[in-house]
Amino acid sequence: MSQTIELKLLKIINTLVVCGSVKTTAKLLNLSPAAISYSLKKLRDITGEHLFIRTRTGMKPNATAYELSQRYQKYFATDVDISHNENQQNENSLTILSYSPIEMLLSESIASLAHQPDKYRYIFLPYTINVNERLDNLVNKNAYIDIGAELPQDKAVSKVKLFTSNISILTSVHNTEIPAEVSCADLYQAKHAIWSSLGDYYCENMQVSGEVKKYIQERDVAVVSGSIINMVELCARSNYIMLLPDIFIPLFTQAFAVKRLKLPAELKMKHDCYIHFNNKMTENPIMTRLIDDIIHSVRTKFTSQSP
């Protein structure tokens, strides 16, 4: 990021990332909440981005906000009280970069962890499909964990396969245009909604590979979106269909009027998901134990939910 940003604005961003609350940030910096809001508007004009998303658990920073916070911590952190809070935050937080269904799975898994440290904070950053950006985030420690498609080898990063999932069709429970036993011809006639954040599906033999490539290239794509929630809602309200790893399907069949249908055998596909982490993580036994618990919890959930 090349923008020149005043130190006081960087300090506000850093404090808000650390504490997650406009009110607390104002109190720590001896400012009014209105002054914090004005500063965020000023930063939005400078960066062209909404740096935080308001959630039930506080203000969630995006990748740019986190980068600005890191910039402040690296070059300008001199205030004793704030530095103390930042160090405490760094010791008791886990920054994760992944796509939304993984966040949903992790949210359920984290809540049930047996050895979760007290007052631990999980920061989920917005996902990017750019492989180089994902790897850079890990190497530069903007994110300590990346969960998604396999990344290229890097000496600073390690990886563990989280799961392998079959791919199925998701469609409305009211869709009468597609039969329960789906054929290739049925798929070519259907309109597809595509979730653009995930498309790294593969098959396990050459014959299937040819059919899958033809299907992917020639299917009737009606809508493409980076929001899986929007795509699932669209499928629930129409006769559109979408492809999705089986592990995620129970998350949506419980909340939306959608159902799972099997792909025909000629188009059998899979998806591999990996958890990548900066090697520095292994130096922290608490963090290492936490990651192992998360891996075990997600795998257990996958086994229990697999159709």
UniProtKB/TrEMBL annotation:
Spell out the Gene3D superfamilies in the cross-references.
Periplasmic binding protein-like II, Winged helix-like DNA-binding domain superfamily/Winged helix DNA-binding domain
Pfam families on file? HTH_1 (PF00126)
Q: What does the UniProt keyword field contain?
A: DNA-binding, Transcription, Transcription regulation
InterPro entries from the entry?
A: LysR-type_TF, LysR_HTH_N, WH-like_DNA-bd_sf, WH_DNA-bd_sf
HTH lysR-type domain spans which residues?
Answer: 5-62
Q: So what family is this one in? A: Belongs to the LysR transcriptional regulatory family.
Annotated protein name in UniProt: LysR family transcriptional regulator
Q: What organism does this protein naturally occur in? A: Scandinavium hiltneri
